Amino acid sequence: MAEFSVNLGGGLYMDSNGVLSHGPVQGKPVYGTPGGGLPVNFDTLAKTFSGLAKALPNKDDPKSREKFDKVLNGIGMLSEDKENLINALQAIGAVASVIGSVVPVVGAALAVLTLLLGLFKDGPSPFEVLINRRFDDLARLITALETQITQRDLRGQRSLISAALAAFANYVPELKNTPPDASVLRLRQQDMRAHADSAGIAVRNLLDASTWLASFTPNDYYAVWPFLQSRLHTFPRTGAPVAALVPAPGANVFNHALMVPLSTFAVTSYLTVLRGLAPEFRSTREHREDLWDFAAALEVLAENMRAEGLSRTLYTTADFQHGAAGGIPWGIGPEEVIDLSALGVPPFLKAGSTRFSVGAMDLRVYNDTYFTPGFSGGSIQLPGDEYAKQGLLNVRWIPPAKLESYQEPIASLGWEPPNQPAATHTRYRITNPEACATAANAQAELDYADLLYSSGYLNLVHLVAVLRNEATDPSTSQTVRADPLLQRKPGTGVPVTVESEPILMTGVISSPAQREPQEYKATVSLTTQPLGRDRKLNYKVWLRTLPVSFSPNGTRWNEQDYGIFHQTDYVDDAAHPGCKTLVTSTGLPLDQLLISEGVSIASPRNASGTAALQAITHDWWVPLKPLGRPIVDRIGAKNLVSLRGLGWESGASSATAPASLPSGPQPSPSPALHPLHDNISLHDQISFSDLLGWIDSVEPATGQHRKAAQNLIYLDYTLDWEADQMTVTLRNHPADRNYVVYVVVEETLGSGQVLHTAQRIPVIGQLTYVPQTFFDQEAAAIALLNKTMRDFADHYAHSVGDVPGRPHPPGDPISGLLGLSYEQIATDPVLREFALSDFTSFESLERFAAQAAHHPSAAAILRRSLKEARIPESTIESVLRTGRARS
Which residues of 417-445 are buried (b: 16+ CB within 10 A; e: fewer)? Predict the structure, then answer.
């Protein structure tokens, strides 16, 4: 699952996997984009990412490859260099997505670390090799970088990080295959910490903006940039776009060419090393200060890259206007125009005009060796399509210009004959300059968005968010995992009689049923923080019950989800701009008991006792249809006798089609052995009663909660905790019926926030099997009551006088049924009581009857509706008499 979202702007988001969406991941932090958002509008973003599964380069997405081919084809780049660039950016996206989206839990941490190391070391496109190749390609193509590499010791910094990765790559198999003893493990951990510290220093150096300052060499940029420097602009974090002027020779400029592959390699490697050192570092707050610093530093690098290295053309309306103040002061010559006006075709610009260059350009990577030799941004260009558009730059862009011709005087040389009209020649002007500027900027913005994708800038945006998220408390535990085994052992069923609540016009419906007590046992296996950690996490283990909303008669049940009881959220971290901090809120439990607390230690700890807790208990009424022959064969003989005694009959023959039982528990299933152990010795301290007759326990899918009430329940518990393994066992008292209790592990994080890991335990102490005919009769009686009440309301609503009010909202169930507005319903006491009544409890019926009996017109209509429903006169009088007595 995605762990965070990045707001790209315009309602578009990129999640931690790089997947695009039009909304953030619910319940997860949302991070901003460096610079306050991408400097492109929403429609451009939508077009840029159209058809792409992810905003990050993705080797599994053909559209992603097509986008790179669109950018890189035809620029003269060696095919090997092209593959190295594409594969490196795709690998960066893959590694960062895994890091940003996986919260390793104890037990899964090694698997995650192995996966990450595999992305670096294994497979056909090993990340580290790709980074090295890209590093060497850039050093070869950009002269100034070799000096930068030497002065900043970039190869040495990279080697320190690679050495840490290699050390952890060897360390992980040791932990998996040949676990060392405690003393050896401590020594190995010290060694790993030393590698992590060295890698951290190297990362800090590589994220320092001064590392990427390089002396500008203009000899590498003769062909294109100088001709477009007044037209190209960059987009810094604040302020207006800035003209991308060619720097002076020898000037110190920010060069992101090597920064992108090396900084992403450094950050992803360091996060992988931290996972090897302590997978729960987010929980313990280890290295958080480093991660805050790294995120801030990487954001500066991304902002510098955008402000100084990524540019696009920017046109104004004046650039397409003619005259002294316009961009075309002397007009457009006939040699640039095809004029078929004589044939009724308006004049238009010839293809191949070199007047307008439109697109985007990486000012550090797009040097003369990047383009095909001979490609130029000047007005004099070589013929051929390969010299018109390369990369994201089109130097022969044709605007959607509307042209008109005019006669322009030819400048006098001073010896023309007197009294002669001045000589002129035909020129053309653009009559829709605003439309041309808009089209040029729209195309350049699309190219710029492609540049953000293909340059690795979006990889940096994603990685900044990954760092900030890794520097944030997790919203779910990284150390606690719960694995429950829920079992029950059915007892001997006894015949009982079940009764519905009183239903108006019908009364109480009763039926014979069978109640079966259940022994219940829950065994919850839990994990805590592994031993040997520098920063220890503290735990508290609780048995906890929560409030349940139920109707007074106990027929309606609305259980509170633990995720509502204990909620987590993220808010802005005022001390660290751009980062988030975890906040939690916890409700009031119905009851709770603390059964253990502390940190993980090697020596075993035990606790046991009987918890006395307030809980909302209830009956489980499980519908049963008539039994067919195949089902009878699955029911024990003893219980079959009991079922037949309650009026159920088996099918007439084996050919009878079987009636289906609910997917929940069936009555008295045959005893089954639960595979707790493969071999049981007579010397084991295990009673056969703990092994025989137990079956997996699930709540009956078609069962109904009935007779809910708050009661004191008793629950026997034992807790065993040794090192990072904990087991909590619960046993019920069948007399306590059914209820829900939670085994909760509260974990205090390094920040002081407390996370809850809650395992829901639905204790089943008894099951009551009720004929389906009972539920059918009850449903029919309630349906008759509802129809009668609707008929009454419909008739009575027509008798209501003119009461001012707004028309009822479309689709509203109450005002739509009555044809009246809320104000009209609220004004009339009978209709108001009708709207508030649910007619499922006797108290609700009494209140409604009291209102109706107090208003003669309502009483008369109610009497008539009851008669139409063929309700006996005695029942009608009883209803109205009850209402009059209450009123």
Answer: eeeeeeeeeebbbbebbebbbebbbebbb
Tokens of 588: 């009031």
| Distance set, CA 255 to CA 139, 158, 235, 498, 819 (Å) | 12, 18, 16, 81, 72
CB environment 756-769: b (16+ within 10 A), e (fewer): bbbbbbbbbbbbbb
Lookup result for tokens 């605007």: 399
- Quickly list DSSP for 151-182: HTTHHHHHHHHHHHHHHHHHHHHHHHHS---H
Residues paired with residue 499 on neighbouring β-strands, in sequence order? 510
Q: Can you say whether residue 751 is alpha, beta or left, with left for phi > 0 and alpha for psi between -120 and 50 degrees?
A: alpha
Work out whether strand 30-31 and strand 5-9 pair parallel, antiparallel, or are unpaired.
parallel
Alpha helices, DSSP H only, in 310-369?
none
Residues above pLDDT 90, as percent of the chain = 42
Question: Quick one: which of 195, 185, 173 has its CA closest to 532?
Answer: 185
Whole-angstrom distance, CA of residue 773 vs CA of residue 775 = 5
CB of 134 within 8 A of CB of 85? Answer: yes
pLDDT band at residue 76, thresholds of 50, 70 and 90? Answer: low
Contact 217, 143 (CB under 8 A): yes
Report the C-alpha dihedral over residues 520, 522, 523, 528, rounded to 10 degrees.
Answer: -160
Identify the weakest region by mean pLDDT among 122-136, 224-238, 833-847: 122-136
Residue 38 has pLDDT above 50, yes or no: yes
Q: How far is CA 306 from CA 294, 449, 578, in A?
A: 18, 12, 18
What's the count of helices (H) and strands (E) in the chain, helices before strands?
24, 32
Query: In whole angstroms, how far apart are CA 254 and each of 251, 337, 756?
Result: 10, 43, 47
257 vs 499: CA distance, rounded Å: 79
The amino acid present at 773, given as its one-letter code, is T
How far apart are alpha carbons 484 and 741 in whole angstroms? 13
